[in-house]
Amino acid sequence: MDIDANLIEKMVKQVLNEIDAGKAEKTAAAEIKKEEKGGAYGIFNTMEEAIDACDIAQKQYLFCSMAERQKYVQTLRDVVLKQENLELISRLAVEETGMGNYPHKLIKNRLAAEKSPGIEDLETTALSGDDGLTLVEYCPFGVIGAITPATNPTETIICNSIGMLAAGNSIVFSPHPRAKDVTIRLVTMINRALEETGAPKNLIVTVMEPSIENTNVMMKHPKIRMLVATGGPGIVKLVMSTGKKAIGAGAGNPPVVVDETADIKKAAIDIVNGCSFDNNLPCIAEKEVIAVDRITDELIRSMRENGAYQVTDPAVIQKLADLVRKEGGGPKTSFVGKSAIYILDKIGIQAGPEVKVIIMETPKDHPFVMEELMMPILPIVRTRNVDEAIDLALIAERGNRHTAMMHSKNVDKLTKMAKLLQTTIFVKNAPSYAGIGVGGEGHTTFTIAGPTGEGLTSAKSFCRKRRCVLSDAFHIRDFSKGL
Predict the structure, then answer these.
(1) Is the terminal CB of the chain with fewer CB neighbours within 10 Å at N or C?
(2) pLDDT at 37 over 90
């Protein structure tokens, strides 16, 4: 069996083997102690209190050394990677939001803690010449207001906190209300560890009761110097309209193209694994398959052999669409991040535990193709040739410039698709998650800023460049001015 094709299954086994089978399960509600509420460890009753405390912390943080920043970032990594904490936040994220699955949350939280860049991302540049020396350095914005989603609540907080703290900022998180408890738990454990390490109090804060009203207060507050929104197109447009520096990580609808030169069996395994990862919650995950006709039957057969359940009856496909879509279009929240087995059960189909993804053939303009559902439902569209497939992928991606995949050995066609779609992430011959560092090179992030152009954010994304000039001095190549 191919190792790369089963990367996720092996990672799941690895993390599950680390869990003590005899440990009693605890919910986050029981873990949150009353004395930790109301201002302790970064949890505040009002957004104004949270921002004021975070502003004081940032002013203190300005005078911390880079070595201290590195120490605090490592402290954050260590507290998340502590097995009991990793298990707790992963389990609670599923319990509270009702989305995704526990083994994959473990992988994603570990990934965020291990592969989000720290201070090493902040490279200083120097210019020297006859007029002296100039340094250009990455410096903090100040207090950052960060809006986080229910789909990836803990992963986003972890990777944002690492990057923002490494950059010298403090952070006010405004989480989705559906992820309130897990956010409070995670912010509490991070702050407790930071304080024990000697960091300023309240470098990372949030509120007891997240709400739209609190988010609006945060966005308008004069002490918030930068806004970072990870979520749907509505919240991204909102932060971009505030007049503040904004980073927006919006929606995607990633297509995957398969042509006649591809390794079809591997492509099938990769697509099923990528689409089903955390029940399709990641915005990078495969959302529609566009395949050249001559290999489509083989592709579908291989997908069925590797965890896909095919629906062929048009009436059942329509029943499925009516179940998971709103009348006006878009996914019903109650089915986002649910498993294929759960969804099939709701239309009267009993599927075995091996089923990861629901597949069906559809026309190119079917809502399943044109809308991001964020659930393991994967439409397959036949095309006459690879050029037609690439053109359709461009339409289906909807101009989000987020993520796309292609399975092919034709370098010219891979290049054509990459150039036409202009996506932030383009994955060739691998599952989508290779694009965020799982089985692929490069750092990870859960804030992929297509609308505002930062791409895969890292510590330097949360900085402003500043220039420090020393005129007529410290240029050691030319002695004429000193003689």
Answers:
(1) C
(2) no
Query: What dihedral do alpha carbons 436, 460, 187, 171 form, nearest 10°?
Result: -140
**Using CA atoms, how far apart are residues 59 and 282, in angstroms rounded to an integer?**
35
Decide: 429 and 479 in contact? Cβ < 8 Å: no
Quick check: 310 and 41 in contact, CB under 8 A?
A: no
3 state SS of 1: coil
pLDDT, tens digit, 9 for 90 and up, residues 265-288:
999 999 999 999 999 999 999 999
Catalytic annotation on 468? no
DSSP 226-240: EEEEES-HHHHHHHH
What letter does residue 199 receive in the DSSP assignment? Answer: P
Cβ–Cβ < 8 Å for 189, 85 = yes
Choosing from 54, 159, 275, 283, the catalytic residue is 283
Using one digit for the tens of pLDDT, what is the confidence trace for 73-95? 999 999 999 999 999 999 999 99
Instruction: Write down the pTM of the prediction.
Output: 0.90
Cβ neighbors of 29 (< 8 A, separation 6 or more) are: 181
Beta-carbon contacts of 413 under 8 Å, excluding residues fewer than 6 positions away, are 259, 386, 387, 390, 406
| CA nearest to 71, candidates 163, 194, 233 | 194
- Which residues does residue 138 pair with via DSSP β-bridges, in sequence order? 465
